[in-house]
Amino acid sequence: MQKDEFIKLSKKYSENKCSWGEKRAVEEFFKKLQDNGQVIPYNFSDEKRYSLLKRINSKIDKPKNRLFHLYSRTQKIAAIAITLLGIAFLANYIIIPGTITQVAAKGEKKTILLPDGSLVFLNSNSRISYSKNFKNKRELELTGEAFFEVKKNPKKPFLVETEKIKTKVLGTSFNIKAYKKGQTRVSVNTGKVEVELKEISEKIILIKNQQINFINDTEPLLTKDNSEDFIAWTKNTIVLKNTSLGEAANILENWYDIEINFTDKHLREQKISGKFKDEKLINILESISIVKQLEIEFLTEKQILIREKQQE
């Protein structure tokens, strides 16, 4: 995030004028500063500073005195923070000439502010790549899953390309799930989205609470469901709604950086529903094992085997 963008977004936050995504981005940014023992990187008036910190304090789980103490340090330290943090916003860059790639590894999630002011929430084991000239050509590639909150610009459409689809918007919020393993899905939270199916060059328009789903090589399926369920992951919540155990395993592998195998292929097709917020892996696996009558075995810390429960 550049200095002027940070100041603009922070002022919007202090005045309670941010969107949900912008609030989330600011709070995560300051939480990361605290976790790293760093200070506010830009200079505000005392009134703005107090208003901003007061609002952030009410949102994040950190002692208030420590937060205010961090921001009372010298401007010299703040200048160092500008150097460290002005390059990127809660994300690591992989820079290839002309291209920027940002990655969330297995077991982590990242919030990214794009050069045009759009926000991307990147799920575990996901990446986006885009041109350094992104402001003029709003196109990026996605592998994995991301929630987008796009700044409206009718003159410059926002395009997301994955292996199977191209998604085009002017200004809206939507989620795309496009891992190499498992289903591909686009879900719309606000506005309107155009999805082009690459293989057949067909275009479909989606509106709020509509989804298009691709499972393996089957025909795409158009559904209507609460779009908030499909972005629950941005709030550290796993929502399973009649989800196959195979797909659930894919989710857990990405979230917890593990490997799950089944002794029988048919187990992967069994369906399960449930909701887990900030839950430990072992608790999720135990819930699944009880509901589906399964046995869970940890072969190693990172390798898990699931089998049918033996009848006594």
Care to describe what's here?
This protein is an alpha+beta fold and 312 residues long. The strands form three sheets. Strands 1, 2, 3, 4, 5, 6, 7, 8, 9, 10, 11, 12, 13 and 14 form a 14-stranded mixed β-sheet that branches. The chain has a three-stranded mixed β-sheet with strand order 16-19-18, with helices on one face. It has three domains: 3-85, no CATH class; 92-229, Jelly Rolls (Sandwich); 236-308, Phage tail protein beta-alpha-beta fold. Strand 1 and strand 2 (99-104) form a beta hairpin. Helix 1 packs across helix 3. It starts with a helix and ends with a strand. It contains seven helices and 19 strands.
